[in-house]
Amino acid sequence: MSKDMALLEALIEQITIINPLQLRFLESSLEGALDAELDDLVAYISYAKTQCLPVDYLAECYDLIVKDTLREQLYFQRHGRYRYSTFDEVAKSVYFDDEYMRKYMHGLAITAYLWPNHRELHRYFARTIPATQRGKYLEIGPGHGMYMMTAMRESKYDQFDGIDLSPTSVAMTRTLLGNGVFGSFQNYRIFEQDFLDGDFVPDSYAAVVMGEVLEHVEEPAIFLDRIRQVATSDAYIFITTPINAPAIDHIYLFDSFHSIESLVSDAELRIVDKLLVPYPGLSVEESTEQSLPINVALVLAK
Ligand SMILES: C[S@@+](CC[C@H](N)C(=O)[O-])C[C@H]1O[C@@H](n2cnc3c(N)ncnc32)[C@H](O)[C@@H]1O
Q1: 115-301 homologous superfamily
Q2: Does 245 sit in the ligand 1 pocket, CB within 6 Å?
Q3: 3-state secondary structure the chain
Q4: Measuring from atom 25 of ligand 1, which residue has the nearest CA?
């Protein structure tokens, strides 16, 4: 085993010490990971070390997501709705709580490699982002910064802008992009602001990317409308959002793919391509009937 893969082994070991139930799931999940994905995960662990965040801390971050998700799933099964429905109910305890948000975002960054469903979304993004298109790229809610990093690695946009309302996410994205572990990136700006308060020039972005944000907002229709406004006529528009996927800060419930499709067409956007990742072992229809999570990624056009 290389020294690098020893870092990954150490992370898995630490996670399973905290939560032994994760062992079989992670062992089987990692069998489906590509070498390049394992390399990126190892790079992330090394990057965390440069920030004085040891493997034990990353394991705690991962465990936070696992336990939070489980608790919210139980709530969802019992009540048929997400626990919270307004931004104010979650803002202080999530987006503006630096310690919590850091753990949450590191945990989420790791699941992009450790969880098959999140891996599928990330692969789909890397596969669909235009490799040679020029112009300006906008990412709404970069969070940990790994999607933005992927975009900067895989595409040739001239300028990369990120906007996130959480000061922690802004700091984490800036640090990740500036650290050099994943490449030397220069042409980026990260703004700390609510997307809806942003003063964007209409028809100015050749790419608009928004991963796992739509379920975090009270009025997703307004978000899609704003995205259509800022995107150029031939823009690459990429969105992910889950169906029936409770989390502490998910406040808008999509209960079927149809509910997402309607929102998209009401915003006068078209679905050009889509990826639906149902609950393991079930079809999309079965997952929907049983109110189980489905991950959705969409490539949209104006
Ligand atoms: C769950 S994280 C998603 C991180 C990453 N995009 C991904 O796909 O894994 C959601 C991010 O969106 C940000 N966010 C939520 N509402 C927002 C808004 N109205 N404007 C800008 N950012 C927002 C949060 O602060 C957080 O950083």
Answers
A1: Vaccinia Virus protein VP39 (3.40.50.150)
A2: no
A3: CCHHHHHHHHHHHHHHHHCCCHHHHHHHHHHCCCHHHHHHHHHHHHHHHHCCCCHHHHHHHHHHHHHHHHHHHHHHHHHCCCCCCCHHHHHCCCCCCHHHHHHHHHHHHHHHHHCHHHHHHHHHHHHHCCCCCCCEEEEECCCCCHHHHHHHHHCCCCEEEEEECCHHHHHHHHHHHHCCCCCCCCCEEEEECCHHHCCCCCCCEEEEEEECCHHHCCCHHHHHHHHHHHEEEEEEEEEEEEECCCCCCCCCCCCCHHHHHHHHHHCCCEEEEEEEECCCCCCHHHHHHCCCCEEEEEEEEC
A4: 166
